[in-house]
Amino acid sequence: MVDRFCSSKSSRAMELAYLSILNHVIRLSSLILFLLWKATLMALQFSVRQIGGIVYHAFTLYRKRLLNVFPNKPAVVSRNIGVISPIGWMLGLMPAVATSVKPDEEKENKKHLISEADILYNEHSYTKLRNLLLQYKGEENAEILWRLARATFEVAKLSSSPAEQKQLDLEAYGYVELALRIDPENFAAHKWMFILLDKKASYDGLKERISQSFAVKQHIERACELNPKDATSFHLLGYWCFSVAELPWLQRQIASTLFAKPPVSSYEEALQYFLRAEEVEPNFYSTNLLMIGKTYLRLKNREKAIVYLTGARDYAVASSKDLETKQEAAKLLNSI
């Protein structure tokens, strides 16, 4: 009787082991069939590298879930569960495979969005650009947010209503502020904070603008540090120095009264940054040529001023800003 009991127990253990192995063989077979089917469907949509990633992820997942396929002792499988069907296994695996693909799709979509946004900006389609990016303002993506701030700022300049301009400028400031919270090391976000913080302060009067001038300068200096290959950042830093050097006597007195250490700079410092911008990217911006010419005029260097003012006057017009620069340069040349 004891022998019969032992024989029955041994037979049951072997049956359980057999069921366990059969279960995993069916799972593995269904997995292979699923991968072949999925790869065929996605062949036209994904690169070989992406499909390889899907296969790798699926096998990794399979290995983690079925680490005890061949244990040291037979795995215990409940008779109530039975053998898992191929369709059930496939359905269970599909969300995991889909999850492995989704991040790549999202990254690619963001890349296309940013590329489209930059094209629209270069085409000066600011309203269309803003409408496009507004759809993504809720996403925590610094690259999208600073571009939305830039687009909103440009749309504000097109408005004929001072109230609407202010509302849009403050809205743009909010976007770039959020971009910097998300990514404090984003040079473009610092560059646009330089522009929009000064713009925001200008609505609060001269005292606030002078007070914020230190923070404004820090942002553009940080942008230059983070990306020394961006000519526009050096141009803006030069423009800050030029503007401070140009402060009228009355504003200088107000600044000295309000602050123990008011902002200071010089034409020499401004020229240094304007020339650095040209060194990084020659002839990148008509206004930079104009500002170099104007700075040389302030420094009484007529010959060099003529060279750069002529360059600004003859610069190919691609925007309304280029046209304004061309006209101002021509006027200055006529006055020399």
UniProtKB/TrEMBL annotation:
The chain crosses the membrane at residues 16-37. GO terms for molecular function: microtubule binding. It holds the Pfam family RMD1-3. It comes from the Eukaryota. Its main location: cytoplasm. One of its GO terms (cellular component) is spindle microtubule. It is found in: Cytoplasm, Cytoskeleton. Signal peptide: none annotated. Keywords: Cytoplasm, Cytoskeleton, Membrane, Repeat, TPR repeat, Transmembrane, Transmembrane helix. Interacts with microtubules. This is Regulator of microtubule dynamics protein 1. It comes from Daphnia magna.
